[in-house]
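The protein record passed on for reference:
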Amino acid sequence: MTALTLSTAAAPGLRADAIVIGVAKGAGGPSVAPGAEAVDKAYDGRLAAVLETLGASGAEGEVTKLPAPSGFKAPVVVAVGLGAEPEKDAGFDPEALRRAAGAAARALAGAKKAAFALPLAEAADAGVVAEGLLLGAYSFDAYKASAKEAKGAKGAKANGNGKAPLAEAALLGGKPRDKAYKAAIERATAVAEELNRARDLVNTPPNDLDPEAFAAVAQAAAKEHGIKVQVLDEKALVKGGYGGILGVGAGSASGPRLVKLSYTSPKAKKSLAFVGKGITYDSGGISLKPAGHNETMKCDMAGAAAVFAAVVAAARLGLEVNVTGWLALAENMPSGSATRPGDVLRMYSGKTVEVLNTDAEGRLVLADALWAASQDEPDAIIDVATLTGAMMLALGSRTYGIMANDDAFRSAVHEAAEESGEPAWPMPLPEHLRKGMDSPTADIANMGERMGGGLVAGLFLREFVGEGITWAHLDIAGPAFNEGGPFGYTPKGGTGTAVRTLVRVAELAAAGELG
């Protein structure tokens, strides 16, 4: 990843490939944001006018490049839009800073070093800028021949345009000796590195990431960061009675796995369980997906990737909370041994499920993992899954839905998501929809009413949460995989959605502030 430093150096004398400054969108045109005073002075106070002449408005994510003033050691100034100018005495929105830093980092692919002179009023600002640029500089080209020819500093992978990601970034206005600033940078680095690891997993082709391979990645990371890990293979799953995970994986030549990652802190007073859907490829099974709906189904393990990354991040940050991650891993394929519509599975909880649609498989693997997580009696469980197309229809491609069995907890998770820069929206669990899953054959069916399908899926999952345990469900089907062009710090492909929310929830629990 991009190397980060805090610097008190003045912009004119800093050796770099570019100086990044912020530009706000004011009522009378663009205005230069705090942090860029030295740059503006070198333009005789006319930098805003120059930028306006070049067509810049200060709109969020807008990037404008211009030659640096005479006397600067950096040859280029990169002006990035921060959006609307804040009211007097109010700082810039953290997410605006995060996105601006990400857009600038993407625009500087191929550069060895850049100095970021964005507004840093306090340590928290340094943290969000650092996070944004580290996420914005991400690229995934492990499978491209051009990557071998365009390696940057320290063997960095090339990005899609053949250039290596930005190698080094200095945050001007930072305080290298200040503990708060140091802590903000360390947190940003740990979270961004693990989030980018989740992106790598989501982007990896399914022929190289089956359940066994995913489990091996988790085992290696656990060993590196002092996390206890347990992997249940097919034999152990059969012995334990994990009918949901086994039923989904029955049609694949690659056997399913259930991975338990346990991070413990000697000072912990609370315990959390994160559960992730890990369908490494989803063909729909016997209920085969139609043509045009299979191409991105490598991303159906994004929930498990997010949970994995969040547990490792919690360990790296040394959070004073116990966090357990459950990765329910299977490949959903059609074959002579695959589960059929009409089959009945006996789940780990003992309940039976009539499978009406084998493409509603995520809720089956999650059901087993949720019940397993419940046996540890954590203070709260959060599951994360690319679960339903219905949630995408409801909330679009950038916002995920939050359901819960406790309104206060749902609100707390929502606030954590928004604070982290991850758009989310609270959704209900209407009791009248539960009747649609009644089965004449089994305890419950895996399908219910078509309308409100995302909520039906949430109601199904609720059936497998232990009694008295607070629980929330994050349906990240929309934002987990970006099929459009990159924006802000979000790349095309895997996004790492929900990692930051889970880390923030863990931080709040450690501080005794989780609702």
Q: What stands out?
A: Residues 150-158 have pLDDT under 50 and may be disordered.
